[in-house]
Design goal:
110 residues; 74% helix; single chain; mainly alpha
Length: 110
């Protein structure tokens, strides 16, 4: 999947959306996100948030996406995290972003 995503990320996204639920789909989606982020962060986020076919993977992929983006574009990662609904009793995705950033840049995390 990552090889397809290198040149055709939207085609790879369509292939992932068509796959049956399971570990292969989860791994393929994660690979796609990893490659696509290096090409177009906003398109990757948009697909992750809005593709109906990946509803069951959305939270996993969003955590994965924000983790990767936080290293290179803290503002985009934080803004995206803050736009997500908050679930009572759980840490919001913004906490994940702060945790990632704090490892390398405590001032920015604060």
């Amino acid at each position: 999947m990552s090889r397809i995503a290198e040149n055709y990320p939207k085609k790879a996204a369509a292939l992932v959306a068509e796959m049956e639920t399971g570990a292969t789909r989860k791994y393929s989606a994660s690979s796609l996100v990893g490659v696509w982020l290096s090409q177009d962060q906003k398109a990757t986020i948009d697909w992750t948030l809005n593709e109906p076919a990946i509803q069951g993977l959305r939270h996993f992929l969003l955590e994965n996406t924000l983790y990767r983006i936080a290293h290179v574009n803290t503002r985009l990662a934080m803004d995206t995290a803050l736009e997500q609904p908050f679930t009572e009793g759980e840490m919001g995705l913004e906490g994940e972003v702060v945790g990632v950033v704090a490892v390398s840049d405590l001032d920015t995390a604060i």
